[in-house]
Design goal:
Methylamine Dehydrogenase, Chain H, 26 strands, ATP binding, Phosphorylase Kinase, domain 1, 3 domains, coiled coil, alpha+beta, 10 helices, elongated, about 550 residues
Length: about 550
């Protein structure tokens, strides 16, 4: 496809065989026909195929439009009239005895067709496409008919181009042009015996000529193929392929050597990394069960005199295969330094023991905070937007290091005492998928990442952040349904864009940060400054709940 400045705009892989004709319909639709026996209607802007018409038994040679109708002709000797709005077949016109090569419309009254037998037929559209006239003005196959300056023109293999008269004087003027050609006006679908005999003789002659031409074409094709695949070309091609194979063998040998060296180096790095992130079990004291789920148990503990959280995976037993992967991911997490990333001090990674992470202690998660607010006082808007903005800062930091979170939800956002969110379980989603065969299907996970073995991307994190923002604005209620309850139109548009089904339509996290900064600034203007604006969130061990 090209624009009006002759610049290439794109290509549509339309058909499985030769495309014989194109036409524009209604200014914005493209119609194509092909030797694959189909006709297709395309949207020129989206390059989308709206529907396919199939009715010809051989290749479709030519098409033309008339208002909401489409006429097509083909190698099956037939003309089919279609209704474009519904894609239904209106009529099948039969009367040609050879390939129908071209059709056109004259004054919205007549449909004119021609074929390889030199026959030209005029069909009356207002009479339900009744055949009105036919003639053989040319002495050989007619390739094309067209209307220009209110006149019909035709061209033929006999080397002639004929300008036809108006159809009102069609029979008389054709007879004057060539006295040897009989023009027959058809009434009630009957033909004179003499005309029918002449037509049959002409058809037989043209069929013999077509068979001869076909044999000539096949012979020429075979000759060209033999010349193209000559012995010299084959020999040169074999020599080139031999050289390529030799180069590939050398390259493969070098790659195997490089992989072996890399494997040895990685094994050494894995041993060193394990020593850096491993924490002995006897260094952890005062275990106290704090929470548990089907996946893990969370303990409050003490390590080196500091309060920490010990998260132990129930089924993540360390083996020779999985241990290096777990330790590597913990090492990557430990190397990260950002206020919105929860620090991990190390892990318990002893062979044949469940994996356990040693994390910085926080009073609770975002889910705990919103759950408590549901039964007491709702969080201020500025606090909600501030939490979402801090989470966006953390994601931006991860994405800048080519990392993704992959499992962002309220339970994976820990909250400090001064309501600063910190992302946890960084880099763990891949290990949980690989070694625990866990599927992530919550409403906070992007649709394209809910299948087992899915690849997690930055666009998936943006989707989760959009759902998290909606969840906060609704005070922890369902994120399903429309957004009519969100009063600000700009915020609705933000959430719709972040949670778009197509990941390509979601913005990068840098845009999300900018949007949330502006949203927070507006929220701060509308928030009355009071002691309630700065909320403190603590965990009371005595009563076992979270308090403002």
């Amino acid at each position: 496809m090209w624009n009006n400045q002759y610049r290439y705009k794109g290509c549509i892989e339309a058909h499985s065989d030769w495309v014989n004709d194109l036409t524009i319909y209604n200014g914005k639709f493209l119609i194509s026909c092909s030797d694959d026996k189909t006709i297709k209607l395309w949207n020129t802007e989206s390059k989308e195929c709206l529907f396919t018409l199939a009715g010809h038994t051989e290749g479709v040679q030519h098409i033309c439009t008339l208002n909401s109708y489409l006429a097509s002709c083909g190698s099956d000797f037939n003309i089919i009239v279609w209704e474009l709005r519904t894609g239904s077949r209106i009529a099948t016109l039969q009367g040609h005895c050879d390939i129908v090569s071209s059709i056109c419309v004259y004054r919205e009254r007549y449909l004119i067709s021609c074929d390889f037998s030199s026959l030209v037929v005029v069909w009356d559209i207002k009479e339900k496409f009744k055949r009105a006239y036919e003639c053989t003005l040319h002495s050989d196959a007619v390739y094309h008919v067209m209307i220009a300056d209110d006149r019909l023109f035709s061209c033929s293999r006999d080397g002639s181009i004929v300008k036809w008269p108006g159809l009102a004087a069609f029979p008389e003027l054709i007879a004057v042009l060539n006295k040897n050609i009989k023009v027959t006006k058809l009434a009630d679908n009957s033909m004179e015996t003499e005309t029918l005999k002449i037509l049959h003789d002409q058809i037989a002659r043209l069929q013999l000529e077509n068979e001869g031409l076909l044999r000539d074409q096949l012979g020429l094709h075979a000759k060209l193929k033999k010349e193209y695949l000559s012995l010299g070309e084959l020999r040169n091609e074999m020599m080139e392929r031999t050289q390529e194979a030799t180069a590939l063998r050398k390259e493969a040998t070098a790659l195997r050597r490089e992989l072996a060296e890399q494997k040895t180096r990685m094994q050494g790095e894995a041993v060193a990394l394990k020593e850096q992130v491993s924490i002995p079990l006897y260094d952890i004291t005062t275990f106290h069960l704090r929470a548990e789920s089907a996946l893990a148990e969370v303990f409050a503990a003490t390590w080196q005199g500091c309060d920490v959280v010990l998260k132990r995976y129930r089924d993540a037993v360390i083996t020779r295969d999985s241990g290096a992967d777990w330790v590597t991911r913990v090492g990557v997490w430990k190397s990260l330094s950002h206020p919105a990333i929860l620090p991990v001090f190390g892990c318990l990674a002893n062979d044949q023991q469940p994996l356990a992470l040693v994390l910085e202690a926080c009073p609770g998660s975002l889910q705990d905070l919103v759950g408590y607010a549901q039964t007491h006082r709702a969080l201020p808007l500025v606090v909600k937007v501030g939490v979402a903005l801090q989470v966006a800062y953390g994601l931006r930091y991860l994405h800048s290091h080519d990392l993704c979170h992959g499992n962002l939800h309220p339970g994976n956002v820990m909250m400090t005492a001064d309501l600063k969110p910190r992302l946890t379980d960084v880099q763990m989603v891949g290990a949980e998928q690989r070694h625990l065969h866990r599927a992530f299907s919550s409403v906070f996970i992007a649709p394209e990442e809910r299948e087992t073995g899915s690849i997690h991307t930055a666009a998936g994190d943006v989707f989760s952040l959009g759902r998290l923002l909606l969840w906060l604005l609704r005070d922890g209620k369902s994120v399903d349904g429309d957004l009519k309850d969100i009063p600000v139109e700009a915020v609705r548009l933000m959430i719709q864009t972040y949670t778009a089904v197509d990941p390509k339509k979601r913005p990068p996290v840098e845009i999300v940060v900018r949007d949330l900064q502006q949203y927070k600034a507006l929220a701060e203007k509308d928030t009355e400054v009071s002691s309630y604006t700065n909320v403190t969130f603590v965990y009371n061990k005595n009563v076992g709940c979270y308090l403002y």
